[in-house]
Amino acid sequence: MPGIPTRSSARHAPVKPAASASTPSNEGNATDATVEEMLCASDQGHRSSRIRISSVRNDVSRLSEGFEPMKLDDGHKQSSSDVTAHDEVDPLGQDVKEAAAALSQLEGLGLQKFDISLPRCNVLGQQSTGKSSVIEAISGIKTPRDTDTCTCCPLYINMKPSNNPSDKWMARVSLQRDYVLDSRPKQQAKEVFPGWMPAESNQIFFAETQSRDDLEHIIRSAQTANLNPLVDPQVFMAISGPRMGDRQNKFSPNTVCIDITEPNLPSLSFFDLPGLISQAETEEEAYTVPLVQNLVGQYVREEGSLILVTCDLGTDIANSTAAGLARQHDATHRCIGVLTKPDLLAPGTTDQSLADVLDGKRYGLGHGYFVVKNLNKREIQSGLSHHDARLKETEFFNNGRWANNLRRFHSRFGTRNLQLYLSKQLAQRTFVRLPEIYAQIQTQLNHIEDELRGIRVTPAHSAVRVITDHILDFSQEVRHEIEGEHEHTCWQNTWEVVQQAFEDALVAMKPTVATRGDLDEGIYASTIPGTSADEAFLIDSDDEHDADVRMRDVPETPHKKRKMEEGSPALSPMRMPAKKQPAGTPSKRSGQKKVSGDKPMPAEFARYRKKFVLDEVVREIKQSAKSKIRDQIHPKVREAMIIEPLTEWQRPMEVFFSTLKKELLSRMQFLFDKNFAQRKGTELFDNAWKIVNEILQNNLHQQQTIMAQESLVNELEGPYTFHQEVFNQEKAVVREKYRQHRQRMRFSVFLLEAKRHLRREMTPSEQDRVRKDGAKMAVIAKEPYENVLNLITEVTAYYNIAVIRFHEKICMRIESKFFKQLRTQLREELETGLRIYDEDDGPTIAQRLLAESPEQERRRQELLTRKEALKKGLECLKDLRHKYEGDAWSSGGGSITHGFGHGGFGPSMVTPPAEDV
After folding, report:
1. pLDDT grade, residue 216 (50/70/90)?
2. How far apart are the first and last CA of the chain?
């Protein structure tokens, strides 16, 4: 934005040239003579330069012939009663708007950071020397006043007239951030500004107001915001928000920019610098002393700038730290001394000692000294206005020593005379420097163009197409893989393995049942006439090699059940083979297809399955709930038993998504590398994969934590049986398998008990006779655990159905949501994420993405940014040149060292400016 600098090195956009400065009123002549005498007396080495000063003035006068007369009255002609609210600033802006506006635009472009020095005015002073009062007197605005340091960061005050006469006074405040906090301890920092590091320029709008009274509060809040860069600036605009007392840092090199507009306002801009400090309050804050000195010194060193040095007459001028800093940087020839608080002269101060200073005999500065009288603290608190301040100032210098022994320096007393002098000096500097600034900009543009030509880059018009080709090839191959098209089946094969492993893990957790219970004892005795099961003896555990057999032949899922129904006929008790067959005896089931339940299950999940022990289930049912109907199981017990085997499904689900993530990322990385291999090392390769990876990670996270988790919660809130017929069919199959296993188990128990009773094993023929004996087989086939097995049958049947439902729901959502997005939206996501179709920056972004060296591309972008700013600056000066080309002032006397062709653009004279004489 014009008028607001964009770097900390950008300081101030000066004013437009003064018109006809060599032809003031009679009293003005006296003023000029006094000024010349003081300039010559300020330095013995410059005494002979009076004629050269006059030459400069004549040149400036001729340069300004094309403008209306500025009517620079010196202030004595005008009575105190005629002073208006704007009189103290009006002379600074008349007839210099174009040049000041041009320089304001140059400041806003941040040309200072490109080593292009612009004329400006910097206000410098030690703490409590009345510096803020001088600023207020010149600008007409109030700045923060505290017993502590008031200016804790540079203030850039830019005053410019508005074009519409009906516009109201307006102030806009923004924060210019050119530095960020340094994380290293301030005492160890090696930066110029301890605690701060240079950063990319960033301008932040803070506030605007049409109230002069509110501006002080806004400036104070903006300063606090700059001292706390890690906090949202708007926090400090709150009425009850933190203020200067809530400081994260004591000082900041970042700038608070204040743009003030109003009809007929002068075109003037200047910097108010932090007051110099000689020592810190604590050892921890010792870093602030060099920070402020370095900050102020950076402004003071800039050639072409005027420096207003404020000194308190209540103390010894010899102790002025500000003047000492100017001498240290060899800048005294550019300094204007401003002596404040003349009503508080140090004891023993004589008229002669003051005259020696004003004559330049002591503590000489290039532009001599001015004395101003501003409001004291009591007067400020009483609410006196700037208009009142100027009246009281005039009255003060019209009395006492100032109107008697020191009267010959009267043109150096008062804010009005200081403003007049600033007007002349800044106007002269502006026009003298413009041709040189133009030449500097043009030279830098030429250097930038040369360097840009040496950097290889894909043309902007083809960079976007190159990237879209890569994206199209990659996204199409991903789509082919997801859809499993011919010669693109790798991912589909992997996906089938992953989802099958998930199903196997769920099946491995299917409930199991121990097929033998205490009620199975005494079967053999029950088959002997005249005996009963009560007379049977127990079989030793050593002989019970089948006591821990599980029902592994129970079908795992309903669709596998159908295979068994078609290919594996149910075995009747009469055809059950013995557990062990003699060697060489062929098994009657040797040709039978083995059910899927015989394959080994994943061990890590099988340990989480529910294991039912018949007698324990009987006891648990009796203890947990009672039904009013004998031998009936309470519904709540049944539902709890059905849901319990599902409670560990979180484990296989997590493994499933972990495997899916690993396999999918691996495959996508392979496809990405294949299509973007030639762009390795570029931002395109890194940024494009980052986008793809984020898509995969975000979708997988969503599928696992939201969709799959919802499905699991739904299952655990069951049981749900919406298709009773399917459930009944599954129960029938499971119950039949349980019956077969149980009958085989009971027949095995019969054989073991017979062996103990007969003291030998039954022969095959004896076993066949038992199978043909209906009475004995009826005893063996009798089921003592009928109700328990019916309950376990329901649990297992429900589990089988729930496994299919849960597995299919998760896999279906992955394919219908996630995989579909990869098929249909991957290309759009990449193009949008890479921003290659941005309306303004798309081609430029594409070029950067394709750059082979990130460092080289960063340098190219930096050069392009500088080029753009310099071109705007050049256009700004060209507009001014075309406006005044051929005017009388463009062909004035003096040797022209810089010009714009035959017409020229103001002289850059061999005769140096007055301050350099």
Report:
1. confident
2. 36
Tell me the backbone φ, ψ of residue 254, rounded to 5 degrees: -75, 155
Distance CA 332, CA 367 (A): 9
Mean pLDDT lowest among 90-104, 191-205, 449-463: 90-104
> Would you say residue 108 has pLDDT above 90?
no
Q: What share of the chain is helix, strand, coil (3-state, %, to 5)?
A: 55, 10, 35
For residue 846 the two structure tokens come to 């594409």
| Residue 231: DSSP 8-state | S
Contact 13, 120 (CB under 8 A): yes
Pairwise CA distance, residues 591 & 587, whole Å: 8
Name the burial class of residue 476, with classes exposed (0-12), middle (13-18) and buried (19+) by CB atoms within 10 angstroms of its CB: middle
**Cα separation, 43 vs 36, whole angstroms:** 12
CA distance 168 to 210: 7
Q: Which residues have C-beta within 8 Å of that of residue 223, sequence separation ≥ 6?
A: 144, 151, 152, 153, 244, 252, 256
Three-state DSSP string of 684-708: HHHHHHHHHHHHHHHHHHHHHHHHH
Each domain of the chain, given as residue ranges in start order, spans 463-525+603-851
Nearest to 794 by CA among 727, 850, 863, 855: 727
Q: In what order do the strands lie in the sheet with 305-312?
A: 196-209, 170-181, 255-262, 155-161, 268-272, 120-125, 305-312, 335-340, 369-371
Q: Please report which helix (H) or strand (E) contains residue 830, including its range.
A: helix 820-834
| CB-based contact 262:165 (threshold 8 Å) | no
User: How far apart (Å, rounded) are the C-alpha atoms in residues 241 and 234?
Assistant: 9
Stretch 304-329: mean pLDDT: 82
Neighbour tally for 826: CB within 10 Å: 21
Q: Determine how β-strand 170-181 pairs with β-strand 196-209.
A: antiparallel
User: Coil, helix or strand for 160?
Assistant: strand
Residues in the chain: 917
Q: Which of 405, 332, 417, 335 is nearest to 373 (CA)?
A: 417
- pLDDT score recorded for residue 191: 61
Count CB atoms within 10 A of the CB of residue 43: 16
CA distance 397 to 410: 8
Beta strands in 95-243 (DSSP E): 120-125, 155-161, 170-181, 196-209
Are 236 and 230 in contact by the 8 Å Cβ rule? The answer is no
Mode of pairing for the β-strands spanning 335-340 and 369-371: parallel
Q: Burial letters for 680-702: b for 16+ Cβ neighbours within 10 Å, e otherwise?
A: eebbbbebbeebbeebbeebbee
Mean pLDDT of the chain: 74
Q: Which residues pair with 160 in a beta bridge?
A: 261
Q: What is the separation of C-alpha 402 from the centre of its chain, rounded to a whole number of angstroms?
A: 60
Q: Is the pTM of this model over 0.90?
A: no
CA distance 434 to 60: 13
Exposure of 468 by Cβ count < 10 A (0-12 exposed, 13-18 middle, 19+ buried)?
A: middle
Q: Is the pLDDT of residue 75 over 50?
A: no
* Residue 22 pLDDT > 50: no
pLDDT at residue 670 greater than cutoff 80: yes
Instruction: For residue 642, give the amino acid letter.
Output: I
Q: Give 771: exposed, middle or buried? Use CB within 10 Å, 0-12, 13-18, 19+.
A: middle
Tell which phi-psi region holds residue 792, choosing left (phi > 0), alpha (psi between -120 and 50) or beta: alpha
Residue located via tokens 């009288």: 373
Q: Which of 114-118, 375-379, 437-441, 813-817 has the lowest mean pLDDT?
A: 114-118
Query: Between residues 526 and 73, which one has the greater pLDDT?
Result: 526
pLDDT at 780 over 70: yes
pLDDT in the model for residue 247: 58
Distance from CA of residue 665 to its chain's centroid? 27
Record the tokens describing residue 812, joined without a space.
């279906």
H, E, C per residue of 265-291: CCCEEEEECCCECCCCCCHHHCCHHHH
